[in-house]
Design brief:
Blueprint: H1 5-33, H2 66-83, H3 92-110, H4 114-135, H5 143-174, H6 183-204, H7 209-228, H8 234-270
Helix pairs in contact: 1-2, 1-3, 2-5, 3-4, 4-5, 5-7, 6-7, 6-8, 7-8
């Protein structure tokens, strides 16, 4: 039996409320994370293990301004999902989970539980990857949906990929792991893996620029941090810059290829 309009509204309401409440929790958590409400700024929490000078994989401070864009996008998505109740790509509950995990990550760092924060951010990464997969299941029906859903969550995923690497490096540093005397080259190896992940996401996502944008953004600021601050590391800076270039180029190539494939049937039809 088909659902009526009233039934659809009732079915969507719990999800819509959950997304909205979790967004508020996430925003409050972020305010704690920047030092408001008595919280300690993330860069100073956990004995400074997440500061820009703590590890080779920590981005420079300006990199974190990307959160402003991501939070604005998440706010726009929260409002949009009240207007478009269908959630036809089934991402609402995944977004809810990602927002709560974001807040949980801030709380674990505030408590100085760096290894627990690694667990939280890894789960967050999995949730965002699952969300990205759902977004690929169907094309957005409008430019607005493309921006507030695909764009926002793509930016979110790309940045969390970089943040996960920095978080793991911080936890290892806190445990006294120094890379066996070769931290520069270990960092370069990790950045090479990030580049491979960026290529894989570009291929899977057919060149979605949002993910590549924040991945490259974070990598560039890692390069900046390693050339302008401590610890200085030319190998890490070069590896980060190269990885950023690989991510961007792969996204552009995959996008052009996807556009060419999409237009091929149309051209074939027009030539008949």
């Amino acid at each position: 039996m088909a659902l009526t309009g009233t039934d659809t509204v009732r079915a969507a309401l719990p999800r819509q409320i959950a997304v909205t409440v979790s967004f508020v929790v996430c925003v409050v958590g972020s305010m704690v994370g920047v030092g408001l409400f008595g919280g300690t700024p993330i860069s100073e929490a956990a004995d400074g293990l997440l500061s820009t000078e703590a590890t080779h994989l920590a981005p420079a401070s300006p990199a974190f301004s990307v959160w402003t864009v991501i939070y604005i996008g998440l706010g726009a998505y929260t409002l949009w999902q009240w207007w478009d109740r269908s959630d036809r790509r089934s991402i609402g509950w995944l977004v809810t989970g990602s927002l709560l995990l974001n807040a949980a990550w801030i709380l674990t760092v505030q408590a100085g539980l760096v290894w627990l924060s690694v667990v939280v951010i890894l789960v967050l990464l999995v949730v965002l990857a699952a969300t990205f997969r759902q977004l690929l299941s169907a094309r957005p029906r409008s430019r607005l949906e493309a921006v507030v859903a695909d764009g926002t969550l793509g930016l979110y995923l790309g940045w969390v990929c970089v943040a996960t690497c920095a978080n793991i490096a911080a936890a290892l540093a806190g445990s006294g792991v120094t890379g066996g005397g070769y931290p520069d080259w270990w960092a370069a190896a990790v950045l090479a893996v990030v580049a491979v992940i960026g290529v894989a996401v570009a291929v899977t996502g057919r060149g979605r620029f949002a993910v590549a944008a924040t991945l490259a953004w974070g990598l560039v600021w890692i390069a900046v941090a390693r050339t302008t601050g401590e610890p200085e590391s030319a190998p890490t800076a070069v590896a980060a810059a190269v990885a950023a270039g690989v991510v961007v180029i792969s996204a552009v190539v995959c996008r052009l290829r996807a556009e060419r494939i999409k237009s091929s049937p149309k051209r074939a039809t027009e030539s008949r």
